[in-house]
Structures are given as C-alpha cells and as structure tokens.
Amino acid sequence: MMEELSLHILDIVENSINAKATRVDIEVDINKEENLITIKVTDNGKGMDEKTLENVKDPFFTTKTTRKVGLGVSFLDEIAQLTGGSLDIESKLGIGTTIKLKLPIDHPDRPPLGDIVSTLITLLATNPCVWIVYRETRNGKSWEFNSKEVEELLGDYAWLGKIKEVLYNSYKEFTGGELI
Length: 180
Known about the structure:
Strand order of the largest sheet: 3-4-2-1-5-6
CATH superfamily: Histidine kinase-like ATPase, C-terminal domain
Number of helices: 6
Mean pLDDT: 87
Distance between the termini: 18 Å
Strand content: 25-35%
Helix content: 25-40%
C-alpha cells in the first residue's frame, strides 16, 4: 500500500491519462470541523463499461496487459474500509470517470495527504499536454493550481522548469506548513 494519499492521487490520474483523458480535475477538501478529508478526481477519459466498473475494486482485475493485478483502486478501497470512510466510483463510457474518497481525518490508519506538490510536478513533467486542475480547500480557505493558466502565463512548456519553486512556495504559504 502507498504511504501517502498524494501517491494514490498520482496513480488515479495516471489511470485517467491512460484512459485518454485530456483534462483531470483533482479536488481535496480538508474539513476539521467535520473530521473529514474528501478527495475527488474527475476526468474526461473514455470511461468504464459496467463490467469494468463492477470489478474495478478487485485487486486481481485489471484491463492492462502488462500485469495481472490492478492494486491502485483496491488499496484505496482498503483504506476506506479500514478507516470507516467510503470510496465511490462513477463512470460513463465516452464521458469519463469520477473517483471520490472520504476518510476521517483523525483515524490512525488514514495515510497523510503527503507531498502533493511533488505529485503535481510529476504529473506535469510526464504529461505536459494534459490539462490538470488541482483545488484544495481547508476549512473554507482555497488554493488552486491550473496548468493551462500557468502555461498561458509563462508560455508553452518553458514553465515546467520554473514550476517547482512557484508551486512549493505558493502551497507552503497556503498550508502554513501544516501537514494533514
């Protein structure tokens, strides 16, 4: 199992990109009053048929030909079950997929959110043509990263070299260095 939720987000987004998504929206809502962290990933990829959707949480089911197991979603499902949270997946062929994970913040088995900035940098560096929008809300205060806006501001793909410092500084300011 992956040690950080940010790595699970990376895995989900990579699945979206493999499903031909050109846009992926990632929403993280951290609400201490409700003791809840919600992670929602929505893509405009090819979507899943009913059979795939029924089996996607099974660790021994995969549509990939390079391996015989599909552990990513099953690990998320296991985390949800261990913590009393939930994992919901909606998908429509030709439209896309939404994965929504809800976990109690204070449960000892909940992995930390982790290094979300490194996750975003990895996604951007390896998939510069995919539009990635990341929104995080912490008790009503929001932070957003939109790869299209940054590309328009800095020009073409030259922005990839500058993005690490900008993202880390902006996100650190937003979180105040607080780990969740």
